[in-house]
């Protein structure tokens, strides 16, 4: 794992985790305009347009520089293909952050979320010196929970019927890890 601070880029065995560019907007919209991604994410709208992607991407650099959040594109090391996104929010006062991610459905099952999340966890603890990182997922999406378990995170609790999505209430499962 290598972090290139000048380019704000993390390289892993198979991935380049980099800032989004406006030119990624069409690919982001193509991947996110998918009900199966929408139903497993807290904040993605559906349908998802190129304009949604552009407005989402436009504040990334400013948020990164102000240490509010670090939003990265998950791309293939070999050809730059966009697989998804991973973000680390940052609460500097409490020295903690939240990891959130999505992977385009055609790329599910390849371990990209886990590899990217391991890189972001490393970034959080070694570059940003956070004390704790947490993540949360809908109980209806156990694959996301398995990513958190592979990171060494532990379940901290379940908020019952916490989110209303598509006229039904969903449980939100919280996981966390302390920087040892």
Which keywords apply here?
alpha+beta; 6 helices; nine-stranded mixed sheet; 28% helix; 180 residues; globular
Order of helical and strand elements:
EEEHHHHEEEHEHEE
Q: What structural class do the secondary elements suggest?
A: alpha+beta
What is the first-to-last residue Cα distance?
Answer: 19 Å
Low-confidence stretches: none
Oligomeric composition of the shown chains = single chain
**Widest sheet: strand order?**
1-2-3-4-5-6-7-9-8
What is the overall silhouette? globular
- The overall average pLDDT, rounded, is 97
Number of helices, where a helix is a run of at least 4 consecutive DSSP H or I residues: 6
Largest sheet: 9 strands, mixed
Radius of gyration: 15 Å
Portion of residues in beta strands equals 35-45%
Query: In percent, how helical is the residue content?
Result: 25-40%
Count the beta strands. Answer: 9
Describe the structure.
It is a single chain. 28% of the residues lie in helices and 36% in strands. With 180 residues, it is α+β, with helices and mostly antiparallel strands. Strands 1-2-3-4-5-6-7-9-8 form a 9-stranded mixed β-sheet, with helices on both faces. A hairpin with a 6-residue loop joins strand 5 and strand 6. The longest helix has 16 residues.
């Amino acid at each position: 794992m290598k972090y290139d601070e000048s380019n704000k880029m993390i390289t892993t065995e198979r991935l380049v985790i980099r800032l989004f560019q406006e030119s990624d907007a069409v690919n982001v919209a193509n991947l996110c305009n998918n009900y199966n991604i929408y139903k497993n994410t807290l904040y993605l709208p559906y349908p998802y347009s190129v304009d949604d992607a552009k407005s989402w991407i436009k504040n990334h650099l400013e948020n990164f520089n102000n240490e509010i959040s670090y939003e990265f594109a998950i791309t293939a090391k070999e050809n730059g293909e966009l697989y998804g996104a991973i973000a680390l929010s940052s609460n500097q006062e409490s020295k903690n952050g939240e990891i959130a991610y999505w992977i385009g459905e055609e790329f599910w099952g390849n371990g990209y979320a886990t590899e990217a999340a391991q890189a972001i966890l490393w970034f959080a603890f070694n570059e940003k010196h956070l004390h704790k990182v947490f993540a949360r997922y809908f109980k209806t999406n156990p694959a996301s929970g398995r990513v958190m378990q592979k990171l060494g995170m532990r379940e901290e609790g379940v908020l019952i019927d916490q989110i209303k999505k598509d006229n039904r209430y969903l449980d939100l499962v919280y996981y966390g890890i302390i920087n040892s």
